[in-house]
């Protein structure tokens, strides 16, 4: 078996049926080998688009893969890979490279930067495992190690394949790779659960804060059962939005600290037992809260650490702890009054009025269903989407922590290929579109059918609310004409709520191609969430 055959076999074993790429001479044999093994090659317009697509694919499928050429391609994909690392999305990064024989005497081969290890050293900082496949005796074990580490840590790995190694015959490992402790220490787990149970049962107002690791480790059902069984209410972080169906009666909303809903924030602050499950302690998660969390009232469990108050536990798997909490059969009385603040999106909309940020999200909200997945870009697209009601778990995707603008349109490619039964609702601003909107060409090429909402407010709305200036303005494109350029898709530009509603109805009934709906907004209009942030954290 050759290098590429074995790598393809391992990817297919984990349901990776698509490979996102931009071809180059160093990677051509890799792509040809994958195609012959039955993996569908998805050519994007740019390496960053390929990276974002692979990231979204990994979030929904459990593992994604991207292939680029040496340095000129690899260094362009570093930003999406950094995002995947920061937000724990498992992606296998595969790079073609000069052959080992070509490297003798250190020649100046094209695409080389400083030395032949330059790209490898860059990716060592962005992945949990990075190596060059060189020795046929070791390659099989290295591939197994890379895939296992990506799955265990939910983060990217990097494999660099010299082009004279692609078709090399390799030794097949007799045993799999074991990455660290794969089972919890029974005594440590038991002690942690006993301490957690005592803390929860003695509390008067416990609250679960759930974040993205619940989704990454496939614990959505356990979370739903935990809140249903115990009666403990649950809120989510912005990054973890949709880890539980937001129609669940125990769900109280998104917690964003000082920038979030006052009702949710107040309930959070009054809690005497915060059960933090898979939470990233970021400034976005905590909403730039003015005071640090009081860890004396926290049960803090992630894939990397477990602390109960100030007691730390080693060798306890996150999955085992969450499932262990469920097995404790804790029962708490659900508070008579949960903070279900009325959504501003549910207010009556004047169909003849011009579209506002609030009315836009209100109308989009009315079309959400278990058949849709929302993919929100960074900025107003994300902050306005906070109040959307997501019907099923894991139907909302956004880079809410790393916050790389331009994620949404290429991400919709990966999302639709990973979950073809879902309709992507892509929400992006004009600034994000000018970065990666050309990936609609890829959407056309592979007959994908997202509904793209392009919020046109003439520039970078999020920056304007903090500090306005001409540097936040953009050249206004004729966005709705892009379908003429591409020769496929449907598009329109809407100014009133009635026009928007009718456009969405058409997009939902006409599923033969993608739709781009340009939504005209005032540059001075902002979502309630963005206004709250500006009011509470600006000096």
TrEMBL record:
Its cofactor is Mg(2+); a metal cation; thiamine diphosphate. Residues 389-519 form the Thiamine pyrophosphate enzyme TPP-binding domain. Keywords: Decarboxylase, Lyase, Magnesium, Metal-binding, Pyruvate, Thiamine pyrophosphate. InterPro entries: DHS-like_NAD/FAD-binding_dom, PDC/IPDC-like, THDP-binding, Thiamin_PyroP_enz_cen_dom, Thiamin_PyroP_enz_TPP-bd_dom, TPP-bd_CS, TPP_enzyme_TPP-bd, TPP_PDC_IPDC. The lineage of its organism: Bacteria, Pseudomonadati, Verrucomicrobiota, Methylacidiphilae, Methylacidiphilales. GO terms for cellular component: cytosol. Belongs to the TPP enzyme family. Gene3D superfamilies: 3.40.50.970, TPP-binding domain. GO terms for biological process: aromatic amino acid family catabolic process to alcohol via Ehrlich pathway. Pfam families: TPP_enzyme_C, TPP_enzyme_M, TPP_enzyme_N. Mg(2+) binds at residues 430, 457, 459. GO terms for molecular function: magnesium ion binding; pyruvate decarboxylase activity; thiamine pyrophosphate binding. Residues 1-110 form the Thiamine pyrophosphate enzyme N-terminal TPP-binding domain. Residues 193-291 form the Thiamine pyrophosphate enzyme central domain. It comes from Methylacidiphilum infernorum (isolate V4) (Methylokorus infernorum (strain V4)). The keyword Protease does not apply. PANTHER family: PYRUVATE DECARBOXYLASE, PYRUVATE DECARBOXYLASE ISOZYME 1-RELATED. Binds 1 Mg(2+) per subunit. The keyword Hydrolase does not apply. This is Pyruvate decarboxylase or related thiamine pyrophosphate-requiring enzyme.
């Amino acid at each position: 078996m050759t290098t590429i055959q074995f790598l393809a076999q391992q990817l297919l074993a984990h349901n990776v049926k698509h490979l996102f790429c931009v071809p180059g001479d160093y990677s051509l044999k890799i792509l040809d080998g994958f195609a012959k093994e039955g993996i569908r090659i998805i050519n994007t317009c740019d390496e960053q688009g390929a990276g974002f697509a692979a990231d979204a694919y990994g979030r929904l499928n459990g593992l994604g893969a991207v292939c680029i050429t040496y340095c000129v391609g690899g260094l362009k994909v570093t930003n999406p890979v950094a995002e995947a690392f920061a937000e724990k999305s498992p992606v296998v990064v595969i790079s073609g490279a000069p052959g080992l024989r070509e490297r003798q005497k250190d020649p100046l081969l094209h695409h080389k930067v400083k030395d032949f290890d330059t790209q490898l050293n860059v990716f060592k900082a962005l992945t949990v495992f990075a190596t060059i496949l060189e020795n046929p005796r070791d390659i099989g074990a290295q591939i197994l190690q890379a895939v296992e580490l990506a799955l265990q840590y939910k983060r990217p790995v990097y494999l660099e394949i010299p082009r004279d190694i692609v078709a090399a015959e390799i030794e097949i490992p007799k045993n799999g790779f074991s990455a660290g402790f794969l089972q919890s220490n029974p005594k440590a787990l038991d002690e942690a659960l006993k301490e957690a149970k005592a803390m929860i049962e003695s509390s008067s107002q416990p609250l679960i804060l759930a974040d993205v690791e619940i989704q990454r480790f496939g614990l959505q059902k356990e979370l739903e059962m935990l809140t249903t069984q115990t009666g403990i209410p649950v809120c989510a972080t912005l990054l973890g939005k949709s880890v539980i169906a937001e129609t669940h009666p125990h769900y109280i909303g998104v917690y964003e600290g000082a920038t979030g809903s006052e009702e949710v924030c107040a309930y959070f602050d009054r809690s005497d037992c915060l059960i933090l499950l898979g939470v990233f302690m970021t400034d976005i998660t905590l909403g730039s809260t003015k005071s640090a969390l009081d860890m004396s009232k926290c049960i803090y469990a992630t894939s990397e650490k477990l602390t109960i108050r100030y007691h730390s536990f080693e060798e306890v798997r996150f999955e085992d702890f969450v499932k262990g909490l469920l097995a404790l059969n804790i029962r708490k009385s659900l508070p008579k009054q949960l903070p279900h603040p009325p959504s501003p999106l549910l207010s009556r909309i004047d169909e003849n009025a011009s579209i506002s940020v609030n009315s836009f999200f209100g109308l989009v909200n009315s079309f959400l269903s278990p058949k849709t997945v929302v993919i929100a870009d960074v900025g107003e697209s994300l902050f306005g989407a906070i109040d959307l009601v997501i019907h099923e778990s894991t139907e909302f995707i956004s880079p809410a922590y790393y916050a790389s603008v331009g994620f949404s349109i290429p991400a919709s490619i990966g999302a639709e290929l990973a979950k073809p039964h879902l309709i992507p609702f892509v929400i992006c601003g004009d600034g994000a579109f000018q970065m990666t909107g050309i990936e609609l060409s890829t959407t056309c090429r592979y007959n994908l059918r997202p509904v793209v909402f392009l919020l046109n407010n003439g520039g970078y709305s999020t920056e304007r609310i903090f500090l306005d200036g001409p540097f936040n303005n953009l050249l206004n494109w004729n966005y709705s004409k892009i379908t003429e350029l591409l020769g496929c898709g449907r598009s329109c530009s809407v100014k009133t709520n009635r026009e928007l509603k009718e456009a969405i109805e058409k997009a939902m009934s006409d599923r033969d191609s993608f739709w781009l709906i340009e939504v005209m907004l005032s540059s001075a209009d902002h979502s309630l969430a963005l206004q709250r942030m500006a009011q509470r954290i600006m000096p």
